[in-house]
Amino acid sequence: MQYLFFSFLIICIFIFSSCYTSKMYSRASFPHHTDTSFVYRLPVLNKNKVYVSQGYYGVFSHRRIFALDFRLKMNTPVCAARSGIVVGTEWKHNRGGATRKWIDKANYVEIKHDDGTWASYWHLQYNGVIVKNGDRVEVGQLIGYSGNTGFSTMPHLHFELWGIDEMGYKTFPSFFYVSGKRRILQGGRSYRIIP
Ligand SMILES: [Zn+2]
Q1: Which member of 35, 43, 65, 188 lies 3.0 to 4.6 Å from 171 by CB, making a disulfide possible if both were Cys?
Q2: Domains of the chain: which residue ranges?
Q3: What is the average per-residue pLDDT within 83-88?
Q4: Hey, is 8 helix, strand or coil?
Q5: What is the CA(152)–ligand 1 centre distance, in A?
Q6: pTM of the model as a whole
Q7: What is the β-pairing status of strands 49-54 and 190-192?
Q8: From the CA of 122, how far away is ligand 1's center (Å)?
Q9: What 3-state DSSP class applies to 24?
């Protein structure tokens, strides 16, 4: 009887917490400098379905950041979610691990958008960056290949949008086009650009 009661309690807590978090995500506050009318493209090829393994404010490593982890197999093409200029790249790391000591060992691409915001694409594979600083990239353009470098426990792409205001570095959430609609992505769900 006691076992049943505790099982019921755990199920209630689970249902309540998932309702609460999805509410929180959908009401995520947009920093005032962000153009919320811009809708981003999933950073993968049209045909690829992607699973969001960790969403905004995820408890594993996104506690205070609006970042998304897309679970991608090694060597999956990564595409620009928005046009801009490449302002940072790293490609020479070849390992990763589950602790923060690996945090500066990730390969990445950073793109500055026309509105002054940036996008970071992390954990790319060794030698998996095909753009260079100063390049102009268009939305959907191939920029590199996914990997498992840096602070990473499995192959995935960490995607983060950020800007700098009077308080300093600030990440922000955004809408994405998925299946022809504008959505805020949730952890634990899969998405595709084309229905
Ligand atoms: Zn992440």
Answers
A1: 65
A2: 44-192
A3: 98
A4: helix
A5: 8
A6: 0.82
A7: antiparallel
A8: 8
A9: helix
Average pLDDT over residues 3-8: 55
CA distance 111 to 84: 6
On whether the CB atoms of residues 82 and 41 are closer than 8 A, the answer is yes
Residue 141, class by beta-carbon neighbours within 10 Å (0-12 exposed, 13-18 middle, 19+ buried)? Answer: middle
Average pLDDT over residues 149-166: 93
The DSSP output letter for 16 is H
Q: How far apart are CA 133 and CA 121, in angstroms?
A: 14
Longest dimension (CA), the chain: 66
The Cα–Cα gap between 77 and 144 comes to 6
Pairing of the two strands 150-151 and 142-146: unpaired
Q: What pLDDT shows up at residue 2?
A: 59
How far, in Å, is the centroid of ligand 1 from the Cα of 160? 8
Residue range 44-192 in CATH 3.40.50.300: no
Query: Which single residue is written with the structure tokens 């309702």?
Result: 19
Whole-number Å distance, alpha carbon 54 to ligand 1 midpoint, is 7
Average pLDDT over residues 126-144: 98
- 77 alpha carbon to ligand 1 midpoint, in Å? 18
pLDDT recorded at residue 83? 98
Q: What are 117-130's pLDDT values in tens digits?
A: 999 999 999 999 99
